TrEMBL record:
One of its GO terms (biological process) is lactate catabolic process. The keyword Cell membrane does not apply. Residues 40-223 form the FAD-binding PCMH-type domain. It comes from the Bacteria. Pfam families: FAD-oxidase_C, FAD_binding_4. Belongs to the FAD-binding oxidoreductase/transferase type 4 family. It comes from Pelotomaculum schinkii. This is D-lactate dehydrogenase (cytochrome). InterPro entries: FAD-bd_oxidored_4_C (IPR004113), FAD-bd_PCMH (IPR016166), FAD-bd_PCMH-like_sf (IPR036318), FAD-bd_PCMH_sub2 (IPR016169), FAD-linked_Oxase-like_C (IPR016164), Oxid_FAD_bind_N (IPR006094), Vanillyl_alc_oxidase_C-sub2 (IPR016171). Keywords: FAD, Flavoprotein, Oxidoreductase, Transit peptide. GO terms for molecular function: D-lactate dehydrogenase (cytochrome) activity; D-lactate dehydrogenase (NAD+) activity; FAD binding. It is an enzyme of class 1 (oxidoreductase). Its EC number is 1.1.2.4. Its cofactor is FAD.
Length: 476
């Protein structure tokens, strides 16, 4: 079916202004932040912008009848090609369907449509003294629907965990157009519910391969009254993870613990010299939150405990000083490209997760791989839960460097699996990591495929993502 014919069919479901079929409009949906997207042209056949569950249901019935792939998309901030039409089809742009329908303060939950931006949700909840704790770095652009689909987490996962811990129920449109409610009946407001199989957990993190999430019921928490932050500088990398363990064993659970290694410190100082981070093998940033007295006590304890291993430690509760301490971490993703004048930071191999006990080893091994493939890298991330973000920096115009970068990324992913970790801690699998699904999950991956085939026998929901590819390798 041609673009125009498909457009005619879609305009029987959606108003004409919410059906995009021109070449320019479709190309605007052909990329995300991933390295892979730079070298492919994943242009969808059409794009639709739904505003109701009924529209999404009618779309899925049409797609099922015509066997057309359907790809849900939020803000497009992902790094895995997860929202791209790698096999053509219809992209469903949910980003403008952004209503916060209700904040149920008495029952500590909020009802929202998938396009709500994370930052705006928390800005709205602040008026009720509440917040939704997962805290991705892309808070000002990523959507809550995308966070649910990828089970996102972020900077404060150490204390608050991942998105799945807050999803109480979902409205989902299945591939055949059927609409289901998970987590209880349509009027369910219960915080605890162990009735039936947990279908909510099945859809959280499913990356759009099982259905389209159209409404979300989230648990929310009281907003902490106080925050404090500590920055610790280490002359030896090994001392940083050891200091994190010391803090845990003292009975303190910070809300976030971030690490910058030598490469990250160098990149930040090149990008923003005024930040002037001290030269070191590692810098740790701790954040604690809670009531003011508790924050003050925990901060003093962290400073004392970490100070036994660090060259220096600074503790702050003044908002301006905390912002200063946080500036380096906040710019590192952008600063990475400054490692070389002709360099670009690529998003690939950027999200491995390893056991806490092996973080130092992983950082050392990644540096060895960097030298092996002659590709510069910057390392930073959420050391409190073993989630390392590696940023390769290359000249994109050099085919030889691109080839070496791909080899480096493959080695990093295989290193994570060999170390008892994962190829992704929070960014997802998409089309860039599904070749490792069998290695990472073994026979369980085949059960995942059976679940997919049961709910989506025509394989029209976001095909080519998450699950093991046919023939062992599928780079779309």
């Amino acid at each position: 079916m041609g673009h125009q014919d498909l457009g005619v069919e879609l305009k029987r479901i959606f108003p004409p202004e919410r059906v995009l079929t021109s070449e320019l409009e479709r190309r605007m949906y052909s990329y995300d932040s991933s390295f892979m997207a730079r070298f492919h042209s994943f242009v969808p056949d059409a794009v639709v912008l739904p505003r109701s569950t009924q529209e999404v249901s009618a779309l899925m019935k049409l797609a099922s009848q015509r066997r057309i792939p359907v790809i849900p998309r939020g803000a497009g901030s992902g790094e895995t090609c997860g929202c791209l039409a790698v096999r053509g089809g219809i992209v469903v742009d949910l980003s403008a369907w952004d209503a916060i329908e209700e904040v149920d303060v008495a029952n500590m939950q909020v009802f929202a449509r998938p396009g709500v931006v994370h930052y705006k949700l928390n800005e709205h909840l602040a008026g009720f003294g509440l917040f939704f704790p997962p805290d991705p770095g892309s808070t000002r652009m990523c959507t809550v629907g995308g966070m649910v689909a990828n089970n996102s987490s972020g900077l404060r996962a150490v204390k608050y965990g991942t998105t799945e811990q807050y999803v109480l129920g979902l409205e989902v449109v299945l591939p055949d157009g059927q609409v289901i409610q998970t987590g209880g009946s349509n009027n369910c407001r219960a915080l605890k519910n162990v009735s039936g199989l947990n279908l909510t957990k099945l859809f959280v993190g499913s990356e759009g391969v099982l259905g389209i999430i159209t409404r979300i019921r989230l648990r929310v928490w009281p907003r902490p009254k106080a925050r404090g932050m500590a920055m610790a500088v280490f002359s030896e990398l090994e001392q940083a993870p050891a200091a994190v363990l010391d803090v845990y064993q003292s009975g303190i659970l910070p809300s976030g613990i971030e690490i910058l290694d030598t490469s990250a410190i160098q990149a930040i100082n090149m990008y923003k010299p005024e930040i002037n981070l001290p030269s070191a093998e590692a810098i740790l940033i701790f954040e604690v939150d809670g009531n003011p007295a508790g924050v003050a006590w925990e901060g003093q304890q962290i400073a004392e405990i970490v100070g036994r291993r660090a060259v220096s430690v600074e503790w702050a509760t003044d908002p301006a000083r905390m912002a200063d301490l946080w500036r380096g971490r906040s710019v590192v993703a952008v600063a990475a490209a400054r490692l070389r004048p002709d360099g670009s930071r690529i998003f690939a191999g950027e999200d491995i997760s390893v056991p806490l006990s092996r973080v130092t080893e992983a950082l050392r091994r990644i540096k060895e791989l960097s030298r092996k493939h002659d590709v510069a890298v910057v390392n930073y991330g959420h050391i409190g839960d073993g989630n390392i973000h590696t940023a390769p920096v290359i000249n994109l115009d050099s085919s030889a460097e691109v080839q070496r970068a791909n080899a480096l990324v493959d080695d990093i992913h295989r290193l994570a699996i060999a170390m008892g970790g994962s190829t992704t801690g929070e960014h997802g699998v998409g089309a860039v990591r599904n070749q490792y699904t069998m290695d990472e999950h073994g026979e369980a991956a085949l059960v995942m495929k059976q679940l997919k085939e049961t709910l989506d026998p025509l394989n029209i929901m976001n095909p080519g993502k998450l699950l093991p590819p046919e023939g062992g390798k599928d780079r779309a």
